[in-house]
Specification:
Elements lengths: L1 E3 L4 E2 H9 L5 H8 L9 H15 L11
Helix pairs in contact: 1-2, 1-3
The chain binds FE2/S2 (inorganic) cluster (FES).
The site of FE2/S2 (inorganic) cluster (FES) has 10 residues, from loops.
């Protein structure tokens, strides 16, 4: 399912980004090599990030640069 319509970012893309260290929507966009457009997906991305972290439990802390 697409979480970001503007940039065609799917749940599995978010999950992969989280496994690579993403902890915020901006991290997900960076990991996908894309930039936010309307920003309407931010809440859904945050929720998916939290769900993925909770589901996988042992993920490393944010490894991507802070904004
Ligand atoms: S839906 Fe993600 S930037 Fe518009």
């Amino acid at each position: 399912m697409y979480l970001c319509i503007c940039q065609a970012i799917r749940e599995r893309d978010v999950d992969a980004a989280v496994r690579a260290g993403a902890r915020r929507p901006s991290d997900v966009f960076r990991a996908c090599g894309k930039s936010p457009q309307c920003g309407g997906c931010a809440c859904d991305l945050r929720q998916r990030i939290a769900d993925t972290i909770a589901a996988e439990g042992t993920l490393q802390p944010n490894l991507l640069a802070a904004d």
